[in-house]
Amino acid sequence: MRAIHFKHLRVAVILAALVGSLLNAPSAQALFLKIPGTQWGHIYAGTNPVTTTTPRPKSAVGVAKSTFNVTYNNFPDWAKKEVQAAVDIWSANFASSVPVSIDASWGRSSSWGVLGSARPVNFFSSFAGAPDQSLWYTSALANALAGKDLDKANPDIIIQVNSSGGWNTRGDGMPSQREYDLRSVFLHEIAHGIGFLSNDAYDTNFGVASLDQPTPYDAYAQTIDGKRLADLPTPSNELAQALTAPLFWSGANAIKANGGVKPKLYTPLRYEPGSSTSHLDEATFSKSGLDSVMTPNLDPGEIFAEPGPLLLAMIEDMRSKPPVGIATGLPLVPRNVQAFTADSSALITFDPPVNLRTAQVSEYIIKNLKTGVEKSALSSPVVVSGLKNGVSYTFTVVAKNTLGLSEAATTKATIPQAGWKSTVLDNGADGKSVASATFNGKPAIAYTDTKSGDLKLATFDGKVWKKVTVDGAGGTSGRTSHSINSPVSLCVNGSGTKQLLHIFYSDATDKDLRYATYNGKSFVFEVVDGDGPIVNNYEDLKRVRTSSDVSVTNACVATANGVQVFYRDESQGILLGAVKTGTNPWVYELVDGDRKTDGRSTGDVGFHLQAIFDGSKTYVVYDSVVTL
After folding, report:
1. Among 119, 126, 160, 158, residue whose Cα is nearest residue 142
2. Which helix or strand (DSSP H or E) is residue 22 part of?
3. What's the chain's average pLDDT?
């Protein structure tokens, strides 16, 4: 046989890759998009003292609608009590079956005048339960809408509090005209973390703003002429101008809570990061009592008792799909239109037109050019059924809005084909170990049946599967009567319809490595290893048959010259190999597990094996447990 080319895999590496893929790969029923939250919502220290003469009224917390869990970083005990009071109020006002986790930090702020800041850890889009699949929802709101935690590995909200904020530390709800109320700050900042936050970014140097991932907050924010903030071009001067001009909230619940008037948002002429857009207008609402909680400033001596009806109404609006915006122009042509083959159907995929946001696309129309049949859809992908297998079809995709239709994008032709059909090979076998190969141009499957203890082989003749018991049933010619319950490997050599099938397996009693060949008519059996007189110690340079347990794993390759099998020596934790050419006896080799030189390992090796021959080299891939 040709030389072996080694590739080592350590178990730690395999596990890390496997666990990572399991954590990051969503199921087919729960696909969604996720981006990190980067925009902060601040509350600044106001400069207009307020005189508080009576303690904060005790608000009726009521029945909890959700659970908030706070992780405190460096908070003094008095501050934790104030935070918990704010959390209890929000628990009674924000409905969610998923606990909301907050990571809260106490420390000096790098921004002058900031009392507190908050941001969502992530934004989610296109998840099951999202009112608008095109918008990005904060972690807490997305979880509430989805009914499950979309990111269990991270908190939902991050809140930072300025430790040098001049706080009222007495907990009496009566800050002096030089003190600020921490509970009020947390009532405000939790609202930002839940979703009272625009995702816009403003470049003060160039006067350009961007809004690449609009939130429901951005979809409810409207310009004075009714354009949604979420629909404005990005990046653009037009968006920048909108962020420094009057903006109003368009949600029905908030309008009702505000006496039938669209609530005005805070948009000063000079853009203020962390304040502009993401607050109610200071001049309009700072003296409005309960509805002042989401103004950008907290004055010394001022207190907020509860979220207030307007804030709660705005959050309730964000649980529903925002109204459609104003279309400006016809949609451009849909992009990247493709048709994929399916059984009696076709899967049509496409990307929205580049002016999706300004055009306000309401639906897409997919037309079968062969039949003339049309189908409407809100998004990609679209399944077109009722097609004939073997017939060529072409489709067009058109975007539609209130002003009309886009130009059509045409797919390449696709021909539906019959899909895979499943067949039960053996109703009575459990198939604990299965191996497959192409033998004489047809599929061949070897499998174990732990109920009977037999090794079986199924071959397909083009019409039906033919099954035969290979071993485990006892008898002559080298068969065993012991149960076969080990891994099985198959490899094939020869050409055309005169191939030879090589089958490697082990028995449960002697734990020998057994070998059977099949020419399409009959089997020949022998024991490869495990039936030696003594254990062939890994330190012995001369390799002979061993009496070790060699039943754990095996993998084989076959070439025109012969067959090669790799297998684990369970008694010594090493990887062995055996080569057979023609009618010559087996030649044994020690592959790995015996030393640290030459790239080898002294670890426990060969729990899992794969081997392949590429025409010139044999590659064997295996794992190794090492002691660190």
Report:
1. 126
2. helix 11-24
3. 90
Distance (Å, rounded) from C-alpha 223 to C-alpha 574?
Answer: 73
Residues 278, 197: Cα–Cα separation, whole Å: 5
Task: Name beta bridge partners: 173.
Answer: none
Higher local confidence (pLDDT), 218 or 31: 218
Q: How large is the average pLDDT for residues 48-56?
A: 79
Distance CA 488, CA 518 (A): 15
DSSP 293: T
Q: Domain map of the chain by residue range?
A: 31-317, 335-410, 434-625
Non-local (6+) Cβ contacts of 338 within 8 A are: 348, 349, 350, 411, 412
Strand partners, 616: none
SS (H, E, C) 589-612: EEEECCCCCCCCCCCEEEEEEEEE
Gyration radius of the chain's alpha carbons: 35
Reported as a pLDDT band with limits 50, 70 and 90, residue 559 is very high
Torsion of CA 461, 467, 472, 476, to 10 degrees: -70
d(CA 571, CA 129): 55
- Report whether 512 contacts 529 (CB < 8 A): yes
> What pLDDT does 157 receive?
98
Q: Are strands 434-439 and 137-138 parallel, antiparallel or unpaired?
A: unpaired
Q: Which one has a higher pLDDT value, 359 or 575? A: 575
Residue 57 DSSP class: P
Give residue-wise pLDDT tens across range 575-607: 999 999 999 999 999 999 988 888 888 889 999
- Amino acid, res. 534: I
Give the single-character DSSP code of 312: H
| Token pair of 167 as six digits | 């706080």
65-74 core/surface letters (b: 16 or more CB in 10 A; e: else)? ebebebebee
The Cα 165–Cα 521 span in angstroms is 88
pTM value > 0.70: no
Q: What is the DSSP letter of 370?
A: T
Residue 306: Cβ-neighbour burial (10 angstroms; 0-12, 13-18, 19+): buried
User: Residue 323: pLDDT above 90?
Assistant: no
Determine what percent of the chain is predicted with pLDDT higher than 70: 94
Instruction: Please say if the pLDDT value at position 564 is more than 60.
Output: yes
CATH no. of 434-625: 2.120.10.10
CA 135, distance to chain mean position in Å, is 18
CATH of domain 335-410: 2.60.40.10
Nearby residues of 570 by Cβ (< 8 Å), 6 or more positions away: 511, 548, 549, 550, 551, 552
Extract the runs of DSSP E, i.e. beta strands, from 79-121. Answer: 100-107, 114-120
| Residues 129, 133, 137: CA angle, nearest 5 degrees | 75
pLDDT digits (tens, 9 = 90+) for 243-292: 999 999 999 999 999 999 999 999 999 999 999 999 999 999 998 888 99
